[in-house]
TrEMBL record:
Key words of the record: Growth regulation, Transcription, Transcription regulation
Protein family per UniProt: Belongs to the bHLH protein family.
Gene Ontology molecular function terms on file: protein dimerization activity
Highest taxon, organism lineage: Eukaryota
Keyword Cell inner membrane: no
Domain BHLH stretches: 1-51
InterPro entries referenced in this protein's UniProt entry, alphabetically: bHLH_dom, HLH_DNA-bd_sf, PRE
The protein's name in its UniProt record: Transcription factor bHLH135
GO biological process: regulation of DNA-templated transcription; regulation of growth
Pfam short name (any one): bHLH_ILI
PROSITE patterns per record: BHLH
Length: 83
């Protein structure tokens, strides 16, 4: 298989960077055009890390909440979360 087939064009990279920028809340708020690709990738990594921390925090809070519930309430909540 030729390595040429796996190459991505500059236009494709620019399109992917643009799509990524549209997904990041901080990048969308920025009114001054496009950020550099490296800055955008750093922002993406930080955003994902923050999302992980937020999920961990919410999971901890949910565990504490479920520990205070009786069995029926906890089962109802678990069934709602699975839906």
């Amino acid at each position: 298989m030729s390595s040429r087939r796996n190459r991505i064009t500059e236009a494709e990279i620019n399109e992917l960077i643009s799509k990524l920028q549209s997904l990041l809340p901080e990048a969308r708020r920025r009114s001054s055009g496009r950020a550099s690709a490296s800055k955008l990738l750093k922002e993406t990594c930080n955003y994902i890390k923050n999302l992980h921390r937020e999920v961990d925090g919410l999971s901890d809070r949910l565990s504490v909440l479920m520990d205070t519930m009786d069995t029926n309430e906890a089962e109802i909540l678990q069934s709602l979360l699975r839906s």
